[in-house]
Amino acid sequence: AQSVTQLDSQVPVFEEAPVELRCNYSSSVSVYLFWYVQYPNQGLQLLLKYLSGSTLVKGINGFEAEFNKSQTSFHLRKPSVHISDTAEYFCAVRPNYGGSQGNLIFGKGTKLSVKP
Amino acid sequence: DTAVSQTPKYLVTQMGNDKSIKCEQNLGHDTMYWYKQDSKKFLKIMFSYNNKELIINETVPNRFSPKSPDKAHLNLHINSLELGDSAVYFCASSPSTGIEAFFGQGTRLTVV
Lengths: 116, 112
Prior knowledge:
heterodimer; A: mainly beta; 6-stranded mixed sheet; 53% strand; globular; B: 7-stranded mixed sheet; 11 strands; 56% strand
């Protein structure tokens, strides 16, 4: 079975400061990794994904994440946040069974609040 | 040109009623899902359909019945609504050979 742990339920930060949202996962098989963002009263939008290759992946809106296999982590970072980044961020994994994939499993989310 | 669309966006209803939420995707994907997001924002899969066939039913009460008339649609019908059914329900889709899922805007169901 797989599980996803987002270590911080809330992260307050000032505008233009850097931010890191932490995500750890547990899985007995290899996984694909994702970060989704949910703006207030909106659906989920894919920020970025790691499938294979370079462990540093870049996404939309200036976000990036680094896959660390030994630490089973996939932390999300942005060097300088804007007020508009205020949202709920979800880390998710999808198990890779070789010829097929399992369903997305989500963490409990991290609420990023950017203050002026 | 919305990729995954759900209707309605908001649904307020009384306990005991029966209601449906519709979902349509125009991405040509083979797999569709229903997720439930509870009041604490936790997302959990309810159903997964591939080419109109049920693949996953994650211990969802029998009052919830998904219906897929074709592979572009996956509707969710809920009988005898209970207070605990209040949540945001998300529809999503993905290609059978793809990895990521594309989500709809969600339907906020409130049972009073």
